[in-house]
Design brief:
Layout (H helix, E strand, L loop, with lengths): L2 H19 L5 E5 L5 E4 L6 H17 L4 E10 L28 E10 L4 E11 L2 E7 L14 H4 L6 H14 L4 E4 L1 H5 L6
Antiparallel strand pairs: 1-2, 1-3, 2-7, 3-4, 4-5, 5-6
Helix pairs in contact: 2-4
């Protein structure tokens, strides 16, 4: 499966999840060599716990020899106009509120897929409401993809090449601990996701 196919399938899973639950928790899909997909969905208590979680995710990617991952989550984004590149030097970043503090903020779901060679695909979907029902808009990333990036950098957190002994120890630890936030989706189930329009 190439990056575009994996990214597209992860978008379908994200859409299905949102349709079912009307929310998307921070979710990581990681492609294993056999085509199965590791699914990691762990809530964090604070920024330190978030960093700890991402480091654990990085270890799992290395242990399972994953070639790409997709991170999807809800996020706030500001609705102010993007600045032209030639005006950026004159712009005071402190004059624009953070998205979470912006009274005109919007809520969306982002999907960012990263391959081990650091190539990326990114899409953002606005969460809208019609007749009291939440739904995801059509992709409205457009030029905004330039401001979206994979800040997790999971492939860069841990050396990609560990000894087979170290990989086996990590896999044994995962198998023994069986955390509730760590699951595997079989290749055939991952690829046949259906999204109700």
């Amino acid at each position: 499966m190439n990056l575009k196919q994996f990214h597209s399938t992860c978008i379908n899973h994200t859409q299905r999840l949102f349709n079912e639950r009307k929310e998307v928790p921070a979710t990581l899909f990681a492609l294993k060599p056999d085509g199965d997909v590791t699914l990691l969905v762990r809530q964090f208590d604070d920024d330190d716990d978030k960093e700890f979680t991402y480091n654990m995710y990085a270890m799992i990617l290395v242990a399972e020899q994953c070639s790409m991952y997709c991170f999807t989550s809800e996020a706030w984004f500001s609705s102010h106009e993007a600045l032209a590149d030639d005006n950026i030097k004159d712009f005071d970043i402190n004059s624009v509120p953070r998205p979470m503090d912006d009274p005109n903020r919007k809520e969306g779901v982002f999907v960012i897929t990263t391959a081990i060679d650091d190539t990326q695909l990114m899409h953002m979907f606005e969460i809208k409401t019609k007749e009291g029902q939440k739904y995801l808009s059509d992709d409205f990333s457009g030029d905004n993809t330039t401001s979206m990036k994979d800040n997790l950098r999971l492939f860069k957190r841990i050396p990609n090449i560990l000894s087979s002994e170290a990989n086996n120890m990590l896999l044994d630890l995962l198998t023994l601990s069986k955390p509730s936030w760590y699951m595997t989706i079989k290749k055939e189930n991952f690829n046949k996701v259906k999204v109700d329009a």
